[in-house]
Amino acid sequence: MAPKPSRLASILRPWGLIWLSICLHWEALTQAVRRDGLSALGRPQQIRDVASARLLSIASDGFIAYEDTTIVPSLVQAAGGIVLELGPGPGNQIHRYDTSTVKYVYGIEPNPYFKDGINSRLDKHDLRDKYKVIVCGVEDSDILRAEGITEGSLDAVLCIQVLCAVKDPKSVMKEVWKLLKPGGKFIFWEHGCSRDRLTNVAQACWNPAWSTFVGCDLTRNVLVDILSSGEWENAHEIEEPEEPFSLLPRIQGVLVKKKC
């Protein structure tokens, strides 16, 4: 097993991804201006989406390799029946689904620039007939309803490092709870604020640049957002691995929606 990084190494680690993202944002901006002129400056979200898709696609292999050393593969395997995957991004989890237990997966992804990459992975892993990408957020109930995703219709929701990046995690979690069947599973592996005081200070210092360019928040209390969404049968089973030096400390679990 590789030695864990020191506190200093952990504190300095975000800079590499921030700098790469800055370069990709600049590249996306200059390309948009060359193509569309100064009118491109009036579409900052499009530039941000392009840069974010490139960043996470470049980092995809590294994320997958790291997740292979964690509980993530077994969490994905726990998703069965009708599944909604929140924010699949470049599709890092697609190869991990147990196709013998999954009936269908809806990938809810608001960034349209991930769609082609996800579809290429679906073809590679022969999942085209069991997975559909829907370009929207989980709050877009009209779009979801048109796909047959309504309150109490889902067997499982998979959420791997997504709540850090949404605008309103409390609202997202309330929607998730409503969409799950009684007895349905919320399967998650998320990062949030550290319980270690010095690490928490470092998170606060990095967060303005990290949230602006990488696109997620280092300081959220994700546990509170999850638990306040509704009633769960096994809230006491949420795990918080001991990671005092990590700026991305995880919480993880398979919560079961309480039956009436």
TrEMBL record:
Pfam families: Methyltransf_11 (PF08241). Residues 1-32 form the signal peptide. Gene3D superfamilies: Vaccinia Virus protein VP39 (3.40.50.150). Keywords: Signal. The keyword Electron transport does not apply. CDD domains: AdoMet_MTases (cd02440). It comes from the Eukaryota. One of its GO terms (molecular function) is S-adenosylmethionine-dependent methyltransferase activity. Residues 84-188 form the Methyltransferase type domain. PANTHER family: METHYLTRANSFERASE LIKE 7A, METHYLTRANSFERASE LIKE 7B. This is Methyltransferase type 11 domain-containing protein. It comes from Penicillium nordicum. The lineage of its organism: Eukaryota, Fungi, Dikarya, Ascomycota, Pezizomycotina.
